[in-house]
From TrEMBL:
Entry binding sites for a divalent metal cation: 31, 33, 64, 173
GO MF, one example: metal ion binding
Sequence similarity: Belongs to the ribulose-phosphate 3-epimerase family.
Catalytic activity annotation: D-ribulose 5-phosphate = D-xylulose 5-phosphate
Residue positions of the active site: 33 (proton acceptor), 173 (proton donor)
Keywords: Carbohydrate metabolism, Cobalt, Isomerase, Manganese, Metal-binding, Zinc
The UniProt record lists the keyword Manganese: yes
Entry's Gene Ontology cellular component terms: cytoplasm
Name the record gives this protein: Ribulose-phosphate 3-epimerase
Gene: rpe
């Protein structure tokens, strides 16, 4: 089970985007949050940010699509070279078909769940995905407080994944810092998105290493 730290660039200094990316070159993936002001009440950016990121870093990119109708848009993020494309279970019209299309385009596939969304309808389909992203805040904004109630889902999922032998990463996103990374790791999580906790620190690279080490020690 590989531990991965994915810094979210949502609240990085966009005027220094290239330097910000270089300051996290020890990360496992760069997490790019795409928001359409429909699925979530915020608007961020689209494909051009992936293209810009690819020119500035060798670290693989994961797109987290907080958008309506991912069936229409997700494929273009795979084609743009994202290693992983994650779309929301609540937004997809035909999630299994979309997952197969993304894999066909050469990407890994993540399925995301808001904090109060049920994972149960998908438990017979674990092998169609590479990762489940369980949101630990309501999606839309960085800097929110971690919702510990969500960890009952990650615990259940970890048990099922380990029993089945299927390779599925379990990721959390929202409010991850030195404390919550430990709680989440203990609850079976192995992929962690961290936005403000990394980018408000003076030493971004150092913080990524600290979060990874804490997760490893508590897995
Ligand atoms: C929120 C985004 C997150 C966000 C995380 O909807 O999906 O990726 O940037 O930010 P922090 O780590 O500050 O909660
Ligand atoms: Zn995200």
């Amino acid at each position: 089970m590989q531990i991965r730290i994915s810094p979210s660039v949502l609240n990085c200094d966009m005027g220094r985007f290239r330097e910000e990316l270089q300051s996290i070159d020890n990360a496992d993936r760069v997490h790019v949050d795409v928001m359409d002001n429909h699925f979530v009440p915020n608007l961020s950016w689209g494909l051009p940010i992936v293209e810009a990121a690819k020119q500035s870093t060798e670290v693989p990119i994961e797109a987290h699509l907080m958008i309506e109708n991912p069936d229409r848009w997700a494929r273009s993020f795979a084609d743009a070279g994202c290693e992983m494309v994650t779309f929301h279970s609540e937004a997809a019209g035909a999630p299994i078909r979309l997952a197969r299309e993304l894999r066909g385009a050469g990407a890994k596939v993540g399925l995301a769940f808001k904090p109060a969304s049920a994972i149960e309808p998908y438990l017979d389909f674990l092998d169609e995905f590479d990762m489940f992203l369980i949101m630990t805040v309501e999606p839309g904004f960085g800097g929110q407080k971690f919702l510990p109630q969500v960890l009952s889902k990650t615990r259940k999922l970890r048990q099922l994944v380990d029993q089945s032998g299927i390779e599925l990463d379990i990721q959390v996103d929202g409010g991850i810092n030195r404390e919550t990374v430990v709680t989440a790791a203990e609850a079976g999580v192995n992929n962690f998105v961290a936005g403000s906790s990394v980018f408000t620190c003076a030493d971004h690279r150092g913080e990524v290493d600290i979060l990874r080490r804490l997760a490893q020690e508590h897995s």
